[in-house]
Amino acid sequence: MSFDKRVALVTGSSSGIGEAIAVAFAAEGAAVVVNGRDPGRIARVVARIRDAGGQAIGVRADVANKSEVEGLIASARDAFGRVDILVNNAGGDGSPKQVEEISEDDWDRVLGANLKSVFLVTQAVLPLLKQQGDGKIVNISSQAGRAMTILGGPAYSAAKAGVQAFSRQVAREVAPFGINVNVVAPGIIRSSPRLDSVWDNVPRELRARYLSDIPIGRLGENAEIVAAVLFLASPGASYLVGATLDVNGGRWML
Ligand SMILES: NC(=O)c1ccc[n+]([C@@H]2O[C@H](COP(=O)([O-])OP(=O)(O)OC[C@H]3O[C@@H](n4cnc5c(N)ncnc54)[C@H](OP(=O)(O)O)[C@@H]3O)[C@@H](O)[C@H]2O)c1
């Protein structure tokens, strides 16, 4: 799949799934905008892409903050002149809590990183995509948006369900401009050593019960999310509008 001459902005690409997506786009010829909040992690991913012969810039921005998002889009445009592909990947839930333990700040932080960010970056990039008459937006939700999860909490689930609903509505709005908006909803993915240790800390019985609900019988890998994202960002996905790809080893069928 070639993304030669395409520009891909991947939010939250300084680690985990986002890093794997950014590296894959660069390997397929795209110029990539790497984003996160930690300059050191961003620099590491940019160097990884450049060392492999790819093209990338790093932009530090909190994607839950409107003015920082505007700066992010301006930096992308200044560096590459356009944006063809936006992957709204930033997010996660550092401290899953039960409903009575969630503070207002927790709620705002989780909804900010996982849902408000999708709204802000989408809104900021749309004028560029409309001007070009072409564009792909892929939003990363989660199976937590539709079913109970053992690694998230109510705030995370609400945010990820919101990503799916938001995406369908926007997909309908912008399809006439040649812009496709779709969603990837991963199951639990071994995205980084940090995720591995979170998973390892889940009680053994709960882990076994969770795995027995997955027909494939294992957690997912970054490459399996990357494949879905690259497909949705490719010309081959031109007739997909507002779809959610559930990349979860078949957990839905149960
Ligand atoms: N791993 C899974 O099992 C799984 C399952 C379903 C869905 N997902 C979703 O997949 C996405 C990636 O998850 P992951 O497992 O790869 O997590 P991760 O390794 O923690 O990566 C999250 C990325 O998002 C960035 N980020 C977080 N908040 C941000 C903000 N406000 N502004 C800018 N960047 C921000 C982080 O960088 P900084 O911290 O430096 O900002 C990091 O680059 C998330 O949306 C997550 O909800 C993951």
Can you characterise this structure?
- The chain has a single domain (7-246), classed as Rossmann fold.
- Helices cover 46% and strands 15% of the residues.
- The model has no long low-confidence stretch (mean pLDDT 96).
- Helix 2 (39-51) links the parallel strand 2 and strand 3.
- The radius of gyration is 17 Å and the shape is globular.
- It has helices at 16-27, 39-51, 66-80, 104-132, 154-174, 193-200, 204-212, 222-232; strands at residues 7-10, 31-36, 55-60, 85-88, 135-140, 179-186, 244-247.
- By secondary structure, it is of the alpha/beta class.
- Strands 3-2-1-4-5-6-7 form a 7-stranded parallel β-sheet, with helices on both faces.
- The chain contains 8 helices and 7 strands, in the order E-H-E-H-E-H-E-H-E-H-E-H-H-H-E.
- NADP nicotinamide-adenine-dinucleotide phosphate (NAP) binds at residues 11-12, 14-18, 35-38, 41, 62-64, 89-92, 113-114, 117, 140, 142, 186, 188-189, 191-192, 195.
